[in-house]
Amino acid sequence: MADDWLTAAEAAARLGVKPETLYAYVSRGLLPRERPPGSRSSRFRRVDVDALRERSHPRSRDRVREVLIDSAVTLLDPAGRLLYRGREVTELAGTWSFERTAEWLWTGTDVPVPEWRASRSAVRVGRRVLAALPADASVADRLRTVVAALATTDPMRHDRRPEAVVVTARGLIAGMVASLDPAGAATPAGAAPASVASMVWRGLSPRTPRAADLALLDRVLVLVADHELAASTFAARIAAATWADPYLVVLSGMSALGGSLHGGASGQAVVLLRELVAGTPADRAVGERLRAAETIPGFGHAVYRERDPRAVDLFAALDRVRLPARLRRAVDDLVEVMATRGGPGPNVDLAVAVMTEAAGMPADAGEALYAVARTAGWIAHGMEEYEHRLRYRPRANYTGPVA
């Protein structure tokens, strides 16, 4: 194909070298070339040029490689905007429930939200599996386990029609949070099901929630329900591209989310906040991390150039609730230290960490909140992939020996 080949000028530009250097690569056997029949000009395979470029840059392994995929789900604007199917997430937060937001992500229509119910048998299976885990198993591990268990109770999980996937998604999320909820079995027949936010709260916090607490948690779930093509979403889309069922799509997303560079970031911010609440000065805690060449959890973002709109919204909401005095002082001191030194601004991971600490949730609760909320986004992206047949075939740049 024409796109597989580059002219000499194109190859030199791609390598960032002069034409003379390009032909030096050819003479040294570093870059193969070809002359089309009847032509005196040289052409180069794009894959060979890219392989040489990778070998020529020692730090290329650390470089972030962008992948572009057409999607109508979420717009992430580096200038500081986030839109779900054309609607600002900061406008949805505080006015739409998580359930309503999820339905919007899946269908792009704003209609009355039907009841989300998990079958009693599915919740029983989920709870039995969780009861067999070690008492100190993390919340994130519990969620991954329960999703795998719930899949075994759904004989219709391979139905990839959009309307069927939406039904599966409702039951999946309801089953996840109901299995964590210690209040009892699935919602009795005839009774209105509890909201996702209320079941998540009961599963993660020892405190009885106020209406303001549930509203704040619901806001968090809306704000982090999707974030364009994050690593976990890409993993979920790859699974969906193979026509894996929605449970496997979600498990793929959860697996990538579990990395310390992704979903674990809010837990690291919790550790930092706890140090400050215990009495460590903010400048010392930050300085120790810089000394160890660590990033400061809860600050900066790989995409947003200036501010994380989710953090701005959530911190404004946190300012309207009663936070423990020591926690509020710790946050203020930390933000001040970073700002004084010209550091990046706080991101949503820090805001989520503040919320979970104020609620008395475990240190890894942030990852669990992301997993529940992001399931809505993973399913939405998976539904887009179900329209295609295995449209990805990445190629490797082989760097090993050749016999």
What would you note in describing this structure?
The chain is mainly α. The chain is built from 18 helices and 5 strands. Helix 8 (162-180) packs antiparallel against helix 18 (365-385) and helix 13 crosses helix 17. A 3-stranded antiparallel β-sheet has the order 3-4-5. It has a two-stranded antiparallel sheet with strand order 1-2. 39% of the residues are buried. 53% of the residues lie in helices and 4% in strands.
Topology (elements, then pairings):
Blueprint: E1 5-7, H1 8-15, H2 19-27, E2 43-45, H3 46-56, E3 74-77, E4 81-84, E5 87-88, H4 89-92, H5 98-107, H6 120-131, H7 139-151, H8 162-180, H9 196-204, H10 211-223, H11 231-241, H12 246-257, H13 265-277, H14 282-291, H15 309-318, H16 325-340, H17 348-358, H18 365-385
Antiparallel strand pairs: 1-2, 3-4, 4-5
Helix pairs in contact: 5-18, 6-7, 6-8, 7-8, 7-12, 8-9, 8-18, 9-10, 10-15, 11-12, 11-18, 12-18, 13-16, 13-17, 15-17
Distance between the termini: 29 Å
In round numbers, the mean pLDDT is: 91
Instruction: Name the structural class.
Output: mainly alpha
SSE sequence, one letter per element: EHHEHEEEHHHHHHHHHHHHHHH
Coarse morphology:
globular
DSSP summary, beta strand count? 5
Strand content: under 5%
Largest sheet: 3 strands, antiparallel
Radius of gyration: 25 Å
**SS element count, helices:** 18
Strand order of the largest sheet: 3-4-5
